[in-house]
Amino acid sequence: MKISREVKTAVLVISGILLFIFLFNYLKGENILDSSRTYYALYDNVEGLASSTPVTINGMNVGKVKDIAFTEDGSGQLLVTLLIDNDFQFSKNSKAQLYDLGIIGGKAVAIIPAFDNAENAKSGSYLETTVKA
């Protein structure tokens, strides 16, 4: 069976578009094939925190900040969306602590795990927040 020139061209164009979308997301730091878990944290002030900032547990990089946006309720609080790798589990009583990265500036988020017998935090849940002074 002979495949027409138009079908070959269509397959080539569609695969090129899909490759472009995948590479564009890869360069943005997002892996569309990865199923990381999403958590949320509410802060009053996140000065110096930016998207793609690392999220750590005990100093080990376990994810990143996906998004920072104002809450829709008009309270002025900021909703920080955290993407955490599937390899890491922590209790629902754990805290998301905002801390300084160093002298140069910038902030990052550290998950302070609670070593209790509570169930693990589920994707989509809100974490209690603190700010390291």
Q: Which terms would index this structure?
A:
elongated; 2 domains; single chain; 7 strands; 133 residues; alpha/beta
Structural class: alpha/beta
Number of helices: 1
Q: Strand order, biggest sheet?
A: 1-4-3-2-6-5-7
CA-to-CA gap between the ends?
71 Å
Provide the domain count: 2
Fraction of helical residues? 10-25%
Which word captures the global form? elongated
Weakly predicted, low-confidence segments = none
Mean pLDDT: 88
Order of helices and strands: HEEEEEEE
Count of strand segments = 7
Sheet having the most strands: 7 strands, mixed, barrel
Strand residue content: 35-45%
Radius of gyration: 20 Å
Descriptive report:
- By secondary structure, the chain is an alpha/beta fold.
- It has two domains: 1-33; 37-131.
- Helix content is 17%, strand content 35%.
- The protein has one helix and seven strands.
- It has one helix at 5-27; strands at residues 37-43, 54-57, 60-70, 78-84, 95-100, 107-112, 126-131.
- A seven-stranded mixed beta barrel has the order 1-4-3-2-6-5-7.
- The protein is elongated and about 70 Å long.
- The mean pLDDT is 88.
